Amino acid sequence: MTLERNDATDTRSTDPAATDGDRTSGSGPRRRLRSFGTDLSGLQASVIGLAVLVVLAGLLATAPVAAGLAVGSSASSVAAEPTAPVAVEAPGPVGPTDRPEISGGFSRPTYTGVAGDPVRIRYAADNPDGAEYLLIGGNRLSDTGKTVGFVDVVKISGTSETTINTRTIGTDASNAESCGLEGTTCDLEFVDESGDTVAENLSALSGATGAGGLARPLVPQRHRLAITNGTFIVDDSGVVTPAAAADQADLVLEKPRFSEDVEVFTTADRDALGEDVDAESLGVLRENGAERSAVTKGNRIVLGFESTGIWGALSHFAAERGAGPIEAGEAVDHRVLADLLEKESGVSLRVRQTNAGMNERPAKLDLSRADPEDVSLIVADAAELESPDAPGRFYLVIDTSDGDHFPEELEPGDQFSVAFALEGTEGERYAFADGQEPPAAFASASGPDDAPQFPYWEAADSTVRAEASFTVRERYLRYDHVTDDGDLLVEVDEGQLTGTTSLLPRREMTATLVNDAGDAPFRAESPLEIADGNFTVGVDLDEVVPGTRLNYELYEGSTLRDSRTVIVVSDVDNPDELVIDDAPDNVTVTEGGNLSALRVVARNAGGLTGEGELALTVDNGSLGGSWGVRLTPDESRTYDFASVPADLDPGRYPFTLRLDGDTHGGTLVVEQDPATTTIDDEGDGSAANGTDPDDDGAADGTGDEAGAGGDDGDSERDSTAANGSDSDAASNRTETDGDGGSGETSDGDAPAGDAPDSVGMLPLPFGTREALGGTALVGAVHLLGHWV
Question: Where are the beta strands (DSSP E) in 39-131?
Answer without folding.
Answer: 103-106, 110-114, 118-126
